[in-house]
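Field reference: "sequence" (input) and "structure" (output). Example, Phosphodiesterase:
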Amino acid sequence: MRPLSSLSENVFARVARLRHDRALHPRGTVTAATLQVDDPESALGAALGTGVHPARVRLSRGLGVPQPLPDVSGVAVRLDRGAGRVDLLFSGTPRHQSTLLPYRSGSGLLWLELERRSQTRFVLRERRLPRSVRTVGVLDIGEPTGDDGSPYDPYLHQAPGLGPVKFFSRIREAAYVGSRRGRTG
């Protein structure tokens, strides 16, 4: 294993072991949701198809510090598909989250973004460099159902033709492995 990957895995395993929970985003609220993809020309439309997709969403705070202390807001989206599931992870402010690393698609690199419009609605966009932004759909969330502790992992659960880039991916993947190992080991 490469030195940075090994360091990342060990650090995240220790944090998870100390917390007896995930290293990051330790507590969250899960809700039923729907992801409406409207743009068939978008990378998300090409990967998932247009229309309404049933989803499960986990809302969390990155470090898990109590309110009113500031923290990173996390939105994890799980889509259960016939051929497997797709996990999309977003982090940012309470009003705006994005995938931290770009995604590779058939049409190039992009970031997925969520903009919160209300307590239950997010607008979903694709952003390409240098300044191309397109609205591709909406994410509507329902009432909280509790947190089942299920892990979300965009590296293990990708849509065909749409996945996180490999840049820094070994370090991030090692962090996921370490966090899982710390919780179970």
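The chain has a mean pLDDT of 86.
The domain at 3-184 is CATH 2.40.180.10 (Catalase HpII,  Chain A, domain 1).
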